[in-house]
Amino acid sequence: MPIHVEIVTQEKLILDEPDADMVVLPGSEGVLGVLPHHTPLLTTLDFGELRVKKGGTEEVFAVYGGIVEIRPDKVVVLADTVERAEEIDLELAEAARRRAEELMRQGPPPDELAIIAQELRRAELAVKIRRRIQSRAGTVRIREAGESES
Question: Which one has a higher pLDDT value, 122 or 71?
Fold first, then answer.
């Protein structure tokens, strides 16, 4: 029996996969692996890599917080922000990371510190995930956005 996975932001539905085999989520208390028939759970998400596995393919996302509802037959991710890994522009993410690092070195005003620290964390995660999927391209087939499984 597969598990239905939905990834949603305030703006739109990002993924609706009715036949996933497994979901790996960055829970606030650690990484969660979710298989069909999982015990019901409602928890918060941390910044991290979210993976949806189906057959020999895997869809990878960078998720930046949110909540997840897990039921035995369905996983609903309500993400604050999410990006498909293959859509992350590595050059832009690296540039954002460099800018945030420079601002942190300059000693930002206290009211801007948390915002800059979060932007740095977000940029570092985007770079890490994009590089990881590039290096794994030969070992796990990454399904591109909109591509159906053959």
Answer: 71
**Is 68's pLDDT higher than 80?**
yes
Buried b (16+ CB within 10 A) or exposed e, 28-45: eeeebebeeebeeeeeeb
Alpha carbon distance 21, 14 (integer Å): 18
Q: What is the number of helices (H) and of strands (E) in the chain?
A: 2, 9
Distances (CA, A) of 31 to 3, 99, 128: 18, 29, 16
d(CA 67, CA 69): 7
**Beta strand pairing status for 41-54 and 57-71?**
antiparallel
Over the stretch 5-56, which tens digit does the pLDDT of each residue have? Answer: 999 999 999 999 999 999 999 999 999 999 999 999 999 999 999 999 999 8
